[in-house]
Write a structure and sequence with these properties.
The structure is a homohexamer. Chain A is globular, with a radius of gyration of 19 Å. The first copy, chain A, has helices at about 15-25, 45-60, 80, 95-110, 125-140, 160-165, 180-190, 235-260; strands at about 30-35, 65, 115-120, 150-155, 215. Helix content of chain A is about 40%, strand content about 10%. In chain A, strands 2-1-3-4 form a 4-stranded parallel β-sheet, sandwiched between helices. Chain A has one domain (about 10-255): 3-Layer(aba) Sandwich (Rossmann fold), CATH 3.40.50.10310. Chains in contact: A-B, A-C, B-E, C-D, D-F, E-F.
């Protein structure tokens, strides 16, 4: 009988014998890549990895899956999508660290015989480095010959256009300025509302959103509070709409790629 | 008022403003380095990081400290001290990933103005790579001129010889074979007993403990169950003895190096 | 008098004395990052860098700018945005090569006293690696204290929504599947029509566009011809519309960031 | 029918289908490695890569060859052979960038089935780094088992002793000080005279040519104009003599190594 | 007949034909990893590699072995075990250099068909980096399939507890503070007494030995002379006791792992 | 009084106090970079480093110099200048290892206050990697501001043309094929004749010496014995001629760069 102190969805809570059993059962191994990055006055700096991890945990409720310890530290925050490195608390790693970590972990999974891997990227800046980690593991170990499939997903791309239309009354400004704003805040409210400080929802937009990146960051492209667009109006209800799309997205993905239906 | 969903000892649960406040208060930032490594039939593969993290959390109860997200994945398990990579579940990273990650995170802390840093290394194999991460951050950012002090600690070195004598009736065989054995098992029992499966305590010792490393690992230097020495006889009481030494060790260290007394 | 064999917009065609003069005049140095990647049956595999380079050359007609030798080889092509590495001719470099190259070139420019730098990224896969190259040069040399500004731009983000609406009758499917399709083909037609083989415009769409990446690439997410969406209907006229937006985008950017008006 | 805007000797101007056809025809793939480096008052800073590229293009006129996009940026200029990094315009990359780029590009060619590869190194400082790029690709992919042959050539070694005797009246001082001097200037006059500014031929020699390298560069081992020896007396006629040797050298090389005769 | 100037125990003194013969004879190849590090007023800074090398040479007197050129430069000296980098003369390399060197040399041995390799680590700080060098060579070349065995040894672990008891009258303080102290000094006296300056044996202990590492090094954890504990009382006789244990340790190791008995 | 077991020209034989004294005396620190590479049937595989090291030791007889532990392992042997990696015994390291090692050691010397450094490169293949090591140390620590000068020398470039004329009767074929041939063999005879096995002097030349490198090495560009040209006719007398030039070269270099005259 499993102790209540242990959560057997979590890879680190398994014994090696239980891990082995999961591999034999062809479980999906889910690795979340997040970040420690300022998220305005109302969200904790661990938001990105926490959001991805909540989704991973819920997926493990629905599918035969193993939730791996998340990559909490992510790639350097960029001003126009994450506020940038000038905010206290934003604590990031560079390309070398992220690429090598992902490469090594994936190689270990392949060595153990894992054949279904899902990366949840919950911090946009990580994206290409996760790709490189996968590509390097692929070069070294192969995927085809092993019969292994890796999905690199985000939760945001699964949100449907009509949901965005509904949430923004048809005026969705695009995902980039949505840092610590209505969508992220609502999504977290939908899955773990205790994380959000509702009394501090910011109501400001960055003075301008340039269509390019500027180094060093000029002062007028990020708000002083750190959110890039207003979070006011965020609600649990909106979060549920967002999450419904996200889990439908994973449902279709797991069906299309792994031939799986949810277990619940 | 802080939400019950948030634990304000944890760095990732702080907002950036709260993080900034902690830096201004000269809080100690604690980073745990663990591993995902087989730990016998009775302990989860996340043992190393979980043990270090429990200690970090307890230190944050006693001192003005911030517990950083731990480094869950550690350096490649070695047969004579950690069972080695042949066991399912042992999921490690290499030198490049670990060094670069530690270097980058420390540089970020230095950039933010953190001046008291404690690394808790809970996986012996990590040790020199943590040193290199610290040395590289020191080369790039300096420590002296910043007035920053970094302690690299483990919990095991704080256990006193007379405690070991008492626990082993004067026949302590040294720390190396103590992987997943009496000391680790008891220590976890002392701090979070729900983690240990008491019905599966292994009672076997590796056939031999060579005084050198052998590559590739021969079959007779690791037990089949993964523990390198017996865990039978582990108890909460023994764990309390071990932990008393550990926290006394930290108490002296924080006093000597930071001029701090515990707050409790 | 300059020889007709030399084009004094090009950095490599300057003598070192002329280069020095350009730096003293505070010219904008423009570096294009492209790729060698399959682009369907109607476009050459150098399309990405050629497109970016054409824009750079035109910018040098309008502004006091120096066009640097482009980075022709780009990061590994990804199936859902560039067809992937299975096509003959797709000849890419990895993260290490691209990051180190960008870092080193930027450090050299900073060393020479260049204070206005524009990167044109014409291959989506390059993006984060260019960021890392910039970040590393920034770490090592500083930007603020040098008074240097680096813009990282793409041409696609400057195309306006109403242009996309006009070109696609309100049904723009997003940029990702637009690889070697109507937008890229028309843009090239608008600036250098001799590059496009109009008799081979592909008219096929990939069977499906997943909202995530799959490794290894399944056969049904890329067409056999390599374009991800139809290029039929591409025209010089449409290209002129696209390019008008692009150059207006650069005009505003150079005005906002460098305080410059076009010279023509 | 090929558009006049495209030059089908160039790899980047091929479609992927045309590239594939070239591979099937066992074409020679030619990669030039040059540099952006001061070349005195009369030659552009792109001289090294431009010279190598002109040779590559001419080889493609004579042999079934594909000219790849050149590596324009080269390894750090050294004072006694290239003037060093103190001159404006000298814009170089380090070992990591050059090695990784060459390695990756060669691996891609090997992956595509290319079996005859020629590197033209037109910047002496690149040499060992090109070797390492080749060695790493060889380690990872193999060459023997693939039946692939790689030639690493320069143009200068093909110039015959009696030509050098004729050009220097028997007093050839060796290649090292010939940077931006008579040989390079004449060679370019022989193949693309419009590149050379004949009114600015320098007529000075460096005060001394030490038989070793000195760091940092002392002021008396490089001329102020950047050429290391006089370029006066350079002529198209001398260039033709040089180039005759060069192309004869390639002719013999292609015959000996690839069993090929020129097609012209 | 071999020249007296050559010592045929040494790999570098063999011709390639003799090297080949040694490989065919399945000789043990011994690589020493040392350091250049302050060793108090009485021992030279090359102590670590010299001590390891003396042992290697003696092993070659007893076994069919080839002594490889030692790695003289070692990993960064750490204050609590080697005095740290503040002492003149301590001249170290970082993780990258050490790992890559070990990896490359081992890969070469494997390529040549060597099947018995012994590393003697004579500088504690090197340990994990030697492991990583071995692990990387193992990943790339394999060991099992080649039938190759690598032993990573130190000389200190072979010294028996009862010897330590005898030498320290039952009060052995552990190996860490034994830097340049009684054990190292005696061991060298036992094998090459001319190395030790007996008139300068230090008699001081570091004021304190913390059970953790501190960065930057505080002034009170290292003595001014560089030794971490007294060397007074060191003697040839004690050295002989130590070395007897060491060579017995190797004898057992070579017997257990290689099935070899000493030849003497 | 110094023990006869110690040679105080050697850095590793100094105590840290003696090292410090040498730095204060502004001694020249000499680092030899060699290789372990086949050298025909008559020379040991350590020839390159041994030759450079003999020169370093002799320089320390003549000048206030410290001879550092040599870099015995060198960059990958190339067929046309060193026989290549197909010969047993040729045991090399790659670019990463060599660059990082040189960089780190030089940084340490700069840190210690050394202001005169001489590298003796005795293995042609090392050359550019030594340059990169120097360049990286220069980037990180500076040289100008420290007042430090580094000379990168070889012994071969100091041999005068008229000496080569005399030795080869005016038919010197260039240094490249002189691997393990008359010049190297005689030079060693001139400085340490016991190293050479005079009964095995090879008398064969490689069938052809291409003016370019070929990968993989074809069988007809290296002799079976490993020397690239005949060593017959080598003599101590010829070696003395060669060495006279070499030491005259160093004499002039030390005079020109360091303002030093020999002390003997």
């Amino acid at each position: 009988m499993t102790s209540p102190a242990l959560d057997k969805r979590l890879m680190e809570h398994l014994t090696w014998q239980e891990f082995d059993q999961k591999v034999r059962e062809n479980a999906i191994f889910i690795l979340t890549a997040g970040a420690i990055e300022e998220h305005g006055p109302h969200l904790p700096i661990g938001f990105d990895y926490m959001m991805g991890y909540e989704i991973a945990l819920e997926l493990a409720n629905r599918y035969p899956a193993v939730v791996m310890p998340p990559l909490t530290y992510g790639y350097r925050s960029q001003a126009t999508i994450g506020g940038g490195d000038r905010f206290p608390g934003t604590t990031c790693i560079g390309a070398e660290a992220l690429i090598a970590t992902v490469r090594d972990i994936l190689e270990e999974l392949l060595r153990h015989g894992v054949r279904r891997i899902v990366l949840i990227n919950a911090h946009l800046e990580n994206q290409n480095f996760l790709v490189e980690g996968i590509e390097l593991a692929r070069q070294r170990r192969g995927l085809e010959k092993l019969g292994c499939k890796i999905l690199l997903t985000g939760w945001a791309p699964f949100v449907k256009d009509n949901t965005l239309d509904a949430l923004f009354n048809g005026k969705f400004p695009g995902w980039d300025p949505e840092h610590a704003a209505l969508l992220e805040t609502s999504a977290m409210l939908g899955i773990n509302p205790g994380i959000v400080d509702m009394e501090k929802l910011p109501d400001e937009a960055a003075p301008r959103y340039p269509k390019y990146s500027i180094f060093p960051t000029p002062p007028d492209i990020v708000t002083k509070n750190g959110a890039l667009a207003p979070a006011t109006g965020s609600s649990i209800e909106k979060g549920k709409m967002i999450l419904a799309d996200v889990f439908e997205g994973y449902e279709l993905a797991f069906q299309d790629e792994f031939g799986l239906s949810p277990a619940y």
